[in-house]
Amino acid sequence: MSEFKFAKPGLNSVGQYQMSGIPYASSSIVVSNTAVTEIEFPTITKFVTITNTHSGASKPLKVAFSSAGVMNDKNHFTLDNGESYTGEFRVKAIYLAGDAAPSTASVIAGLTMIEIENLPTNWSASDGTGLYNNGLG
User: How many helical (H) and strand (E) elements, i.e. helices and strands, does the chain have?
Assistant: First the structure.
């Protein structure tokens, strides 16, 4: 007798991006300026919001989609103290680093039911494939 199994959603499962995301939140993340902080999500995201939560002296926060991207000079974006950015990104991880000094951050995301194994490279040029990598690092 055969066994019935439900199909799992994949990266192009439109319905996963149409319905509301499963909430994910992480706050008080201490971010070094000498090492990369990887925030890995349990499933592929629908959207991600990153906030530089540092108060006091200016401590910019670098955000990228690969560890190489956050540590080079051109493949990341920077958030100043109190700034946040929301993007509709389908990623399995984001990478943070302090620009010139350690900083702090919070991350909020809407998760899909798509398993992270469906996105092997996380949109990185670091793996050498050249797939979807222009400007990603």
Answer: 2, 8
User: What CATH number matches the domain at 18-118, 2.40.50.140, 3.40.50.2300, 3.40.50.720, 2.60.120.770?
Assistant: 2.60.120.770
pTM of the model: 0.86
Instruction: Find, among 13, 52, 11, 7, the residue nearest to 31 by Cα.
Output: 52
Using one digit for the tens of pLDDT, what is the confidence trace for 59-85? 999 999 999 889 888 889 999 999 999
C-alpha torsion sign, points 79, 84, 85, 90? positive
**pLDDT > 90 in the chain, percent:** 69
Structure token digits, residue 21: 């995301």
Q: Name 68's Cβ contacts closer than 8 Å, sequence gap at least 6.
A: 75, 124, 125, 126, 137
Task: Give the residue extent of every domain in the chain.
Answer: 18-118
Q: How far apart are CA 123 and CA 41, in angstroms?
A: 15
